[in-house]
Amino acid sequence: MSIPYKRLNGAALVTGAGSGIGQAVSIAMAAAGISTIFITDINSAGLDSTASAITSLGLLSTPHIIRIPGDISSPEFIASLFGQLPSLDYAVNCAGVSGQVAPTAEVSLEDFDRLNGVNYRGLWMCVKEELKLMLRNDIKPYHSFTTSREESLVRGQRGAIVNIASQLGLVGKTQAAIYTASKAAVLSLTRSDAIDYSKPPHHIRINSVCPGVIATPMTTSGEKGASEKLKAAIKMAPMARIGLASEIADAAVWLCSGESSFVTGTGLVVDGGYVIN
Hints:
Elements: E1 11-15, H1 20-31, E2 36-40, H2 44-55, E3 64-67, H3 75-83, E4 90-93, H4 109-134, H5 149-154, E5 159-164, H6 177-197, E6 204-211, H7 217-220, H8 228-236, H9 245-256, E7 267-270
Parallel strand pairs: 1-2, 1-4, 2-3, 4-5, 5-6, 6-7
Helix pairs in contact: 1-2, 1-9, 4-6
């Protein structure tokens, strides 16, 4: 892995970092140059695996890795988690769960609360605390190539937040109403927070990524890998292949970096073209 310059600097938090997209984002953030990375997941063993993957990259400067296992749907854990973060420059909120595969009339209240406790309420609690930390930061000028000092100041930011939503926050899917609604809520939260915090004096950009069908333990953990329904969804996308977690991670790093300094409130669709077909 090679990078032309240090795209990120400072401290980052990645939730859901124990596997799949969250693990890939953590690795990509480390490769992009951050100095400290806080990783959290309900799966403690997964955090160990992520930390090992980062240290095995052979980077010139490996970031300081702080593993904090826990459940982001718990307000008590949120208080503990953010009590351990002295500062924060970037956050990528990847933690998410899938719901009961059933139409609304057959979904239990318990499953609705479990799913939204992580996908929406838990993410919202994280964003709330991430914003508080970032508002303490000075505005950092854009540190890569610009034609003038003035341009680097215009492109500066106090921080950047990326929320992992889904292509299913934009379109419907049979027997998945509570999941699609939770991801639509993430997109709406992102847009409204971007209005409130991107402008002066705050200068915090907030964006979402909307992955398509991505090869993760959530999608390929069955005995035969991807299910027939999943294969049908893959074929619907013009690119006709499953996406890679690293492709979502690259999008998240770009949205954190100063290279996307005029991008805020967006839901960047990374789905092989699924939603256009």
